[in-house]
Amino acid sequence: MQNGKQIGNLVYGGLTLLLMAAVLLNGCQRAASKQGQAQLTLAKKQYEGKDYTLAAHTLTDFLNREGNVQEAAEAYYLRGMCYRYREPPKNALAEEDFLQAVKKNSNGPVRTWAYAALGHIYFETRTDKQDRAVAYYQNALKALKDAPPKDAVLYRLGVALQRLGQWKEADVHLSRCFNTFGSSMYASYARRYFGARTWRIQFGAFANLNAASQLVAELTGASWQADWQPQRDNGRLLYIVRGGQYPTFLAAYKDLDRAQATHPEAMAVAVALPKLQPPDK
Prior knowledge:
Serine Threonine Protein Phosphatase 5, Tetratricopeptide repeat; 3 domains; 4-stranded antiparallel beta sheet; 13 helices; 61% helix
């Protein structure tokens, strides 16, 4: 799965032409001075060179000098991206800047990119706030054309809805992803999770059925509702061992610490309702 940084770089790579349209939409505002435009150009180069700290300083100076100019929304958006990519990320500052970009670019493309970036922040970092990720992604989709990064937004919106237990709504967006973007890797992810109806904790995948059965017995003895399910992966038949059954990701997440205490590789996954295997004789 691509992370937010990769998605952001794809987005910003195609943003320049759209920002020209945003300037026209905000024609009632004055344009930045020549010095300010030079600063903004420099900040873009610093950003593209991954010098996020220096780019953020340049953008801060631009905003302090120029004030409420046509290019302010772009500057806030770009500085927000710089904060997101800092090590460690400064997501609180990034969120403030993306909200400013939304406010200052009420009808332009920067608003759309800022909504998508806000969705990514909550999708990636706030397990307990997936409703906000959903709202921001839905706002971004209102203006996104059928081209990347719409595939990433559709996929992540579907997963965020699954995390909230809104399974049927999730399927709508996941199907839009793989029907519209058939060759996208996000389409591949969307197909994998389409039709899921519960969250479970996955403990392992085995090529040997006896190993899977032994783990199921071990987990059952430890009070887990465990079973194995057959699954083909790149032509190989695997036996997937999972335990528990949860309506939302947050409910599964609360049990994940207990699972990882004995099985560090355990993870929460969205799956179809299990077809329980008959007990071994």
